[in-house]
Amino acid sequence: MYELNTLLPEYDIKLPTCMYPMKVLNNSRATVDVKADASNSSNDVDGVSARQEKVLKQLQELKEQMANIRASLGLCQKGAQHTVQTSLRNGGLREEPLHDIVINGHPNFIPYALLALKNAWKDLFTIDVKIFKHSTVPDIGKEASEFEKKLAQVKVDPSKPKVNVSLIWKNCEHTEMISSPTMYVPIYGEVNIIRYLGRVGPEAYRYENSPNCNEIDAVLDICYQLLRCNTSKSRAAMLRALNLRLGKQKYFGGDEISVADIGVHSSLKRLPAITPKDLTPTLTEWRKRVQLVTQL
Amino acid sequence: MVADKENVATASSAVEGEATSKKAAKKQAKEALKAAKKAESKAANMAANGEEAGDAVDVSAGRYGSTGLIQSKEKFEERKFVSVNELSQPEYRDQVVWVRGRVHTSRAKGKQCFLVLRQQSSTVQCILAVNERVSKQMVKFSGNVSKESIIDVQAKVVTVPNKIESCTEQTIELCIEQLFVVSLAKPQLPLQIEDASRPENADDPEGLNIRVNQDTRLDNRILDLRTPANQAIFRLEAGVCRLFRDILTAKGFTEIHTPKIISAASEGGANVFTVSYFKESAYLAQSPQLYKQMAIAADFDKVYTVGAVFRAEDSNTHRHLTEFVGLDLEMAFKYHYHEVLHTIADTFTGIFKGLRDNYSREIEAVNQQFKAEPFKFLEPPLILEFAEGVKMLREAGIETGDEEDLSTPNEKLLGRLVKAKYDTDFYVLDKFPLAIRPFYTMPDPNNPIYSNSYDMFMRGEEIISGAQRIHDPDFLVERAKHHGIDITKIAAYIESFRFGCPPHAGGGIGMERVVMLYLGLDNIRKTSMFPRDPKRLTP
């Protein structure tokens, strides 16, 4: 590179006495620069890491400063904590937590998965369910009221992370979930709601990063089809497929219980046409095991 | 000369005209008397002989005509009347029955005459054809009965092979045997019932587009009220009142009646009507608020009142009336105003359920003319906090302050958001900011910004606004001072709490507005039988 000639002649600038010299704001950085310059020849890596350390420290200071300001103003400290919490819970995924969601279900097609999840997550996570009856269904029937009672039995623990669910009995074709009214994109089907809840629920049930991810998805897809079977023949085929998937494992997809088990179990519950006779011995055994957790 | 002659001619003819018109009037009067006598004698004859062979000229003489003025002379107890909506029941098939109704339409064609008889919202087709007992004269007479006249017919109920699409009774028709006019309508009607009851579907290019505008309807309200939709609206309105009374009575409420002439304006000085009261002036009550609260202080525990409320607001909008029916309730509670909130919300759900289950015919009839989505609600009703509502609005990109009142567009938008998420047209918004509520509202114990007050919404419009009232006189004075209200003007109000008063809360709704929103109508004048607004004092 060429050196540039100074355009202006060098004047001696006399500072007027009425002015104060300004404090260098980022003095620390300046020193780092100097340091980096100095160590340039010897070790670049050291310099960079030192600088990074410095920057991190500065950030920390800044954060504290912000927190102080917030505290002094008495502003929404909650908001700040919230984001920290979610970023931790989602493993860095920038995802808004589901504050409250609406699930529309027909009283003839009871979303048992909700109760199953609530029971399974009892010690880790709270699902606070409020139940409403839509004007399109005058009467919800015995089974649905039974289901309501069982839901109410599971206590709401305020200390646990929680998601609010409004369950609305409605004359609708599919079980559907609505999370935000502004982007009205309902999620159809019980298994898809299980998938969605699986993401916000406790760590152990988040299956996206698990090696069994595909297996679990496949099992949930079978459940979806199973619920749409009209003939006993097609149902039997689906049960065979499930039996094959289960094999000699303790649960679907391994030794740990997962949302797949929740899905299969609640789907079986919803189909009274499937009697214990239709199930294979392995499935019956499995059902007993899962029942202990889901308590349907 | 010519002009003069003409003048004379016109003058003489005028005199002549006057003379003839006088004569004609006398003649007419005589004739009318004759006709009436004749009709009377005919009716008497018919009653005496049951059936008359008739003279050779008119085979059905005595089987049609005018009943004359019914002065309760005869009883005709043998005539069994059946209402139109019951005619299609199997027990009347091929039976001869009597029906009284209005001529909805009539069409005479040579030897046949088709009449559509209307009774309230039900219509039935009647047919009259020349045969051995029905003369040509009778058919002609029937064809000339003006629309909207009231007639009595004796007819045979006959089932028809093809459905009659234009009537509500589609499976049967009436073969008329006798026909008497009870009360004749003017041949010229200011509006046609058919036009007034035509469905309002703007996107149907082929349909007839004749409408009756709102003012014509209101000027001729009795004709307008005969349309099926209006019949249904006011029956449903009666239902709202009945359900309100029944539900609250079952909950242990007592109905009270409050004075409508009051000495001081109850809510602020503005928008009250002043009336002269002997040597002084008085006001018309804007709300029974004060009296409801006094009833609570007098140990009535739970009270409601149904009565006229007056607002001198000079606003000509689709949802303001200067006089409307207020359904107000007030209730003492034990410890938490949510006891009252749930009572009010449950009352609404009860009303909606009652309407859904018992008034489906009326709702259907209104929908025929004024299309609207059915009213949806949840049970138990959805209760959101004000802060949650604000959050939903912010998520939708609306900037609104924590202590800011909901503007009308925001109110509507929030209604749409709630509808999209929960699919309900009715919801409760709880804990409004204290700053935007009246001085007598109890502040929230946990957060000084908010108050123990609530609004309820139907189809995104506020229908009731209520709160826990301050029942402690000293605290009330403090709050009033805070709001800069002259204590001397509300001394009586404050005094009423000096002798001990239980904690209480309540609210009031406008009946017309509830019916309008329940049915999804666009104008409150449609749900007030004889509406009063700044521009209308008649009929």
TrEMBL record, chain A:
GO terms for cellular component: aminoacyl-tRNA synthetase multienzyme complex; cytosol; nucleus. Residues 97-187 form the AIMP2 thioredoxin-like domain. The keyword Nucleotidyltransferase does not apply. The keyword Cytoplasm applies. GO terms for biological process: translation. Residues 235-290 form the Glutathione S-transferase C-terminal domain. Residues 45-72 form a coiled coil. It is found in: Cytoplasm, Cytosol; Nucleus. Keywords: Coiled coil, Cytoplasm, Nucleus, Protein biosynthesis. This is Putative aminoacyl tRNA synthase complex-interacting multifunctional protein 2. It comes from Ceratitis capitata (Mediterranean fruit fly). The gene is AIMP2.
From TrEMBL, chain B:
GO terms for cellular component: aminoacyl-tRNA synthetase multienzyme complex; cytosol. It is found in: Cytoplasm. It is an enzyme of class 6 (ligase). Its EC number is 6.1.1.12. The keyword Membrane does not apply. Residues 28-41 have a biased composition (Basic and acidic residues). Gene3D superfamilies: Bira Bifunctional Protein, Domain 2, Nucleic acid-binding proteins. Residues 1-51 are annotated as: Disordered. InterPro entries: Aa-tRNA-synt_II, aa-tRNA-synth_II, aa-tRNA-synth_II/BPL/LPL, Asp-tRNA_synthase_2, Asp/Asn-tRNA-synth_IIb, NA-bd_OB-fold, NA-bd_OB_tRNA. One of its GO terms (molecular function) is aspartate-tRNA ligase activity. Residues 42-51 have a biased composition (Low complexity). GO terms for biological process: aspartyl-tRNA aminoacylation. Keywords: Acetylation, Aminoacyl-tRNA synthetase, ATP-binding, Cytoplasm, Ligase, Nucleotide-binding, Phosphoprotein, Protein biosynthesis. CDD domains: AspRS_cyto_N, AsxRS_core. Residues 234-539 form the Aminoacyl-transfer RNA synthetases class-II family profile domain. Homodimer. Part of a multisubunit complex that groups tRNA ligases for Arg (RARS1), Asp (DARS1), Gln (QARS1), Ile (IARS1), Leu (LARS1), Lys (KARS1), Met (MARS1) the bifunctional ligase for Glu and Pro (EPRS1) and the auxiliary subunits AIMP1/p43, AIMP2/p38 and EEF1E1/p18. HAMAP family: Asp_tRNA_synth_type2 (MF_02075). NCBIfam families: aspS_nondisc, PRK05159.1. Belongs to the class-II aminoacyl-tRNA synthetase family. Type 2 subfamily. This is Aspartate--tRNA ligase, cytoplasmic. It comes from Ceratitis capitata (Mediterranean fruit fly).
